[in-house]
Amino acid sequence: MIVTVEDGDMAVMALAENIDREDLLTMRICLALRKIENLVSTRKKLAEAIGLNREDMYRYFAFEALPDDILSKLSINHACCRVRRDSCQAGHADN
What we know:
Helix content: 55-70%
Largest sheet: none
Structural class: mainly alpha
CATH architecture: Orthogonal Bundle
Number of domains: 1
Low-confidence stretches: 79-95
Order of helices and strands: HHHHHH
Shape: globular
CATH topology: Arc Repressor Mutant, subunit A
Radius of gyration: 14 Å
Strand content: under 5%
């Protein structure tokens, strides 16, 4: 069976599949969400499509508000800045 999938749908499915990877950096999730957010009509639907609650999704988006010097360190040296998904969701295990 062959299913035709639009590029936007494929991007959403790829992020949904990869978001639970242990080695995926939080900043990478933020960037991926930004790339695909316009492909879904609302952020609520985006969160549902990815399998996140909205609170966690907004935490990922908050990375963009970090000072420029921190953002540059995150993008330049991922090995030293391994801020993982777990730290973003700390305290929300019950959601």
